[in-house]
Amino acid sequence: MKAIRVEQFGDPGVLRLVDVPTPKPGPWQVLVRLRAAGVNPVETYIRSGNYARKPELPYTPGSDGAGMVEAVGEGVTGCKPGDRVYTAGTISGSYAEFALCLPAQIHPLPERVSFAQGAALGVPYATAWRALFQRGQAVPGESVLIHGASGGVGMAAVQMARAHGMQVWGTAGTERGRLLVLEQGAHRVFDHGARQYQEQIAQAAGKHGVDVILEMMANKNLGFDLTLLALGGRVVVIGSRGDVEINPRDAMSRDADIRGMVLFNTPPAELAEIHAQLFAGLENGSLCPVIAEEFPLARAPYAHGAIMDPGAAGKIVLVS
Ligand code: NAP
Asked: Phi and psi at residue 121, in whole multiples of 5°?
């Protein structure tokens, strides 16, 4: 099969398309013929060698993908060859034509959802669900600001918050991104690149403030987020690329919480709950991933550059 292999950590050029043997499923393993693989920022951090969790070299990147079950190993009962599935984790990596998975890493993909859309679920949608409901504890009627709503995680969160009766605000850095954020259900959108956007959000938040903030770039925004929160408000830190200075009094005076999260820490029972909720939302159409761009597997190096560029407009996927 064709697969991307990383022989040494480094810049995107280390992502090479090679021929490798197609894996065979052992007991309690499932082989999936992937049609699409999701590209996530974390895969660029890992590839660079600067991330705390490092795989053994050589490795095939990627946890997210979608396709059809090709074969199942001894003992597997929950799926059969031909089933449409998406992956949320793999044993062998998803930037490939086939991926070996554990049964708990694959989930059914409703007919109405394309393989490219299925590849947008594993990390982004699960992260958005965990951030909004399990960590942020957002409830219908509350206001939610999604700081960085134009990317994979943010757009998923917009759809979820809107479907659950929340007042939804998002930010994006481009006109295209802002339009998409509105189309996906945000009531208001702000330009996080504009000089006075903080004043605009603060004015819109008024005296009550914002109940929940989902933060994709905490190193830039956390200090400001704390000044926006309502009494008892929560900011969930999903993404951060550096240090930030905050005034703790802004949290004290609001009885506010800063709640960090990393998807890898999710206990298995809560992860199972997330994927059951995602299936329901995909089936009823309230969740519908937006694909920004599709690239062939061979263009993985380009895709790794694109995911880190400003101007997100949904999800970047590799197709095979
Ligand atoms: P993505 O698709 O590349 O989107 C990045 C988002 O960040 C875009 O909406 C982008 O907006 C926005 N952004 C850029 N500058 C910003 C600023 N100054 N303020 C607010 N937002 C800004 O990435 P993603 O997959 O959605 O992931 C988002 C972040 O969460 C990444 O840092 C990623 O590493 C992290 N993440 C963490 C977890 C976890 O478990 N904690 C899981 C998944 C992702 P424009 O491009 O429109 O400017």
From this structure: -95, -45
